[in-house]
Amino acid sequence: MTRLLAKTLLVLTIAVGASGIAAAEVREVIPIKVDEATLVRLPDRVATIIVGNPIVADATMQPGGFLVMTGKSYGETNLVALDRKGQILLERTINVITQPGAVTVFKGVNKESYSCSPTCEPRLTMGDDGGFFGRTSGQSGARASRAESATAISGSMTTGRTNESVGSGGMNINIQMGGGVP
What band does 157 get if pLDDT is binned at 50, 70 and 90? Predict the structure, then answer.
């Protein structure tokens, strides 16, 4: 019986090998944190890049042979780089992971996410409770809008105009140029 089993295993091993079935290819994994970017060095002659699932990660080719990979949502996808003839030059697995310091709080069935490094602040994370996500998103949007307004104001300071008042989200900012009193 042992000889029969050994012969059967030998025949199966030869049959599998002859059929072209190989062990699963092991691809290098590129870990990316969600909402962060990382640089990937591309081989020469890359003409096309393909991201298997653009919802998980995004890729942008840059001059100098670099690729900027951005983690968009949690999960795994693949990256393929081709030359002009369609030959595969690079294949990698992209693994988008959570940020260190991320804390998830469950209030019943409702989920809230925080970045805690060193203090805890709300963060926008897929799967969060709709109300929490909306409030956090609204605050982030208002903050970004104010930052853009401040950038626009600092840009107008270089125009040479003096003593101008600029409205910014319900707040007036008086800018004095030239050291005078308003």
Answer: low
Q: What is the CATH number of the domain that holds 67?
A: 2.60.40.1080
Same domain, 88 and 119: no
- Secondary structure (H, E, C), 33-53: EECCEEEEECCCCCCEEEECC
Nearest residue to 40 (alpha-carbon basis) of 19, 70, 10, 12: 70
Cβ neighbours of residue 139 under 8 Å, at least 6 residues apart?
122
Domain that holds residue 122: 102-150
The answer to whether the CB of 43 falls within 8 A of the CB of 81 is: yes
Contact (Cβ atoms closer than 8 angstroms) between residue 124 and residue 99: no
Beta-carbon count within 10 A of 55 CB: 11
Instruction: State how far the Cα of 92 lies from the Cα of 53, in Å rounded to an integer.
Output: 13
Number of other residues whose CB lies within 10 A of the CB of residue 159: 9
Angle, vertex CA 18, rays to CA 17 and CA 21, nearest 5? 55
- Structure confidence by residue, pLDDT tens digits, 94-139: 999 887 788 899 999 999 989 888 888 888 887 899 999 899 888 8
